[in-house]
């Protein structure tokens, strides 16, 4: 399925908005990013998945000063599905207050709602090893 350029740009801006809202502490606006029943999968970090915008908001508040001071999203790849859903894969960089940095991959399912495009599922995977842990064969 093809995705209109206008929709593709809206989806990319949606994914980009995450860092601005979180870094600004505008957690009351997370419903601009996520569906009400979003699944936010943090299992790669040894945590359970969060269900719903309120749970995502509360988890961010609970993390408090341990939150990154800056979230940067790059390398956004948008793939439209035949079912109307859009798969988005992007890279995230988080900068902590002490200057340390971490990298993640976001795998998002994005759906069109009455309020516009929203993320219905986000899986966050930590990037811990170069080349995805692969080594040269032979």
From TrEMBL:
InterPro entries recorded: NTF2-like_dom_sf, SnoaL-like
Gene3D superfamilies named among the record's database cross-references: 3.10.450.50
Pfam families per record: SnoaL_4
Segments forming domain SnoaL-like: 4-123
Organism domain of life: Bacteria
Name under which the protein is recorded: Polyketide cyclase
